Each structure stands twice: as C-alpha cells, then as structure tokens.
Amino acid sequence: MADDFRTVLRHWRLLQSKVGRHLDVLIQLRVLDQQDLAVAQSKIATSQQEIAVNEAKTLRFQSRSVFIFTAITIVFLPLSFFTSYFSMDVASTLSSPYESEMFWKICGPISGTIIVGVFAVARYVSRPVKDDPDEEEMVGGDLKIEPRQRGWLGLSSHLKNRLKMKLS
C-alpha cells in the first residue's frame, strides 16, 4: 500500500510539473498575443494618423481653392457692376429726374472704401512671417516649420492664428 501511495505521489508531482510547464507556455502565448495586439493597435493608430494627415492636406487644398475663387469673385464683381452701369440705356436715364452725378455721389465713396479696404488687407497679409503653426508637417517624427511669405492664400490661417492668440 505504501508503494501505491508513493506511485500516486510520484505521478502527482509529475503531473504538477507538467501542468506548471503548460501554464508557463500558456502565459508565454498570452504575452505573445498581447504583443501582437499592441503591434496591430500601433499599425491602426499609424494608419489613422496618415488618414488624418491626408484629409488635412485635402482640406487645405480645398480651402485654398475656395479662397482663390473668392478673390477672383471680388475682382470680377466690381467689373460686372461697371460693365452693367456703362451698358445702361442712355435714353431712359435722360428722362430720369436724377442725374448721373447723384449715382456717383452715392456709389463712388462706397466703391472707393471697399477697394481701399481690400488693398489694405492685402498689404497687411503679405507681410513676412517667421513661424506659422498651420504649416507644421510631420517629417521623420520631427515637426518641421518652414518660414514662408504670407500672401492671399495665407489670409485665413493668419486670421485663425490671431483669433487663437486673442482667445488664449
């Protein structure tokens, strides 16, 4: 009976050592799975960052396109106004109680103020800039800030930065 008990004890210890080794292997597999999960999460985060950068570049291009379109519209709106004015029917204006002088007294100062204002904003915006936070791009893990000349295309980012500075 003692031999049977020793045999059972020996098998029990052998089983215990096998279970311990299998637990070690399972723990190692769990660690490997966690590492694989961490790698997959970092790849997902990297791809999300790339998507965000691409969307930002696309948005920047679109906003510049809209700004250029707006600038062109600002140029051609007064042009269409003057062509409309100069293509008016002269016969109907001769029978009008108001003269052309009245029109120019009202519209001349308004047009002049708008034109001077646009040129003043253009001159203010075209000043050189050292650092523009909107121009930051990720290059090899480092932020690269390049100085550039601010022109018409930099107006929106300049106004946005001024607003941020006033709010903070």
From TrEMBL:
Gene Ontology terms: cellular component: membrane
Domain of life, per lineage: Eukaryota
UniProt keyword annotations, A-Z: Membrane, Transmembrane, Transmembrane helix
Chief location: membrane
Mitochondrion is among the record's keywords: no
Chain segments annotated as transmembrane: 66-87, 102-122
Membrane topology: Multi-pass membrane protein
Subcellular location: Membrane
Entry protein name: Uncharacterized protein
Species whose genome carries this gene: Apodospora peruviana
